[in-house]
Amino acid sequence: MATGRTHRPATRSRGIPEATVARLPLYLRALTALSERSVPTVSSEELAAAAGVNSAKLRKDFSYLGSYGTRGVGYDVEYLVYQISRELGLTQDWPVVIVGIGNLGAALANYGGFASRGFRVAALIDADPAMAGKPVAGIPVQHSDELEKIIEDNGVSIGVIATPAGAAQPVCDRLVAAGVTSILNFAPTVLTVPDGVDVRKVDLSIELQILAFHEQRKAGEEAAASDGAGPVPAGRDSAAASADKGPDGDVPAVMPA
Amino acid sequence: MATGRTHRPATRSRGIPEATVARLPLYLRALTALSERSVPTVSSEELAAAAGVNSAKLRKDFSYLGSYGTRGVGYDVEYLVYQISRELGLTQDWPVVIVGIGNLGAALANYGGFASRGFRVAALIDADPAMAGKPVAGIPVQHSDELEKIIEDNGVSIGVIATPAGAAQPVCDRLVAAGVTSILNFAPTVLTVPDGVDVRKVDLSIELQILAFHEQRKAGEEAAASDGAGPVPAGRDSAAASADKGPDGDVPAVMPA
DNA sequence: GCGTGTGAATGGTTTCACAGCG
DNA sequence: CGCTGTGAAACCATTCACACGC
């Protein structure tokens, strides 16, 4: 999904499907929880339930990593934690910079799961001179003039962009020029990057819009058949024309017809 | 990820693929930008470039909505903005509650894109009594005791969870019981919900781990990667692929199986 | 002509179902 | 016997290529 020419034409025989890669962190988290409770082994069924997927999918996913299970028994928790960690590259240390220390950037800097597993916040960077030196999550914010130097000195290859939309592309360009090859983008913009650079985006408003779509669809279907699977608890109908109850008279007015 | 029951396409009309739905917000954003610059029409090629997808995909996506383009010309920007907004349900107002007003919750409350398009922060809720009454982003935080009342009074059907992991499931249960049917979860946990409730998750650490995987692969392309998928649990320590440079003391004990 | 709209071809992912092994 | 590992089938998504209509 990065650039136009995104094709990696079968780099090597090393072919773990993208969809599987995206689930490995989920399995890892579930396994870590089991590990902390000193559970020695799990079946695909149990682990799948904990990770919120189905067991056939999980077994297929693991089959791409190798045969790490024992038939008739299940998977060794510790061993699997190690194997997945290694596959994901978490047995090494990844220094990360966060650019844009507003509300969101500060939240990310404070996020515990960040440091907990392989990732380390190497620096916080902001364009506002007034922020410089101010500690956030115990780390002093540095001015963006230092960006290139910070990247190089720390061998940073992963950058997190938490700037306003307008600043995202320029920041991205500088990160890439300085040597960053993976970017996690929280700004609501499509980033353009050269080949070989990975971009993943996290976009609140896109997620909300997807939810709204499904929500609207649910509201439009009050003629359920005899399925009767899920009795929605409070049978209160919601979210129709909402021009009546709101304490706030603000109308969004997205578009006239 | 859409919860449980796959919707039967029995109702022949609205069968928009999930992948398409996920891209509509992207198109909408690009179109809105064009609209603000008073661009009257776009070709699939141009719009696709702005949205970061390829044009065949975009045309196929739009074909699910109907035939809104003009051959030889392109798409009318304003008209398409309206059609997509309507399809996504953004022509109505969606009151949203945010639960958990820590760093992240505050960031979300302050996020501009939130209110800008169809969504309205109806309330901020936190379990900490000390937070109650304190305004965040101009909205006073309310205590979680009020949760059910708030949901009902405001007809909220979308909830955002930004609590610590441990609190997420209980909060989720209460939201659902009170009538929420769509949840955006920022806590690093798998949420269990009844049928008919949609959950989407945003998970920083999963995204970072996916990036790390690709980053590691890139690094491994310079050095001949030694294949680690050996026979059975005997040669498991062949993890020499990547130079172990990190002082990461957290490596789990290697298991002989 | 030009660019949309769409069947058909391709590629990837999920699910099924069962063989195989501890 | 129970549970993993995996071909094969079913499903979904993307890409191709071209007919069609402005």
Automatic annotation (TrEMBL), chains A, B:
Domain CoA-binding residues, every copy: 89-190
Disordered: annotated span: 219-257
Pfam families per the UniProt record, alphabetical: CoA_binding (PF02629), Put_DNA-bind_N (PF06971)
Residue spans binding DNA: 26-65
Stored Gene3D superfamilies: NAD(P)-binding Rossmann-like Domain (3.40.50.720), Winged helix-like DNA-binding domain superfamily/Winged helix DNA-binding domain (1.10.10.10)
Gene Ontology MF, one: DNA-binding transcription factor activity
Protein family (similarity comment): Belongs to the transcriptional regulatory Rex family.
Official protein name in the record: Redox-sensing transcriptional repressor Rex
Species this protein is from: Streptomyces pseudovenezuelae
Name of encoding gene: rex
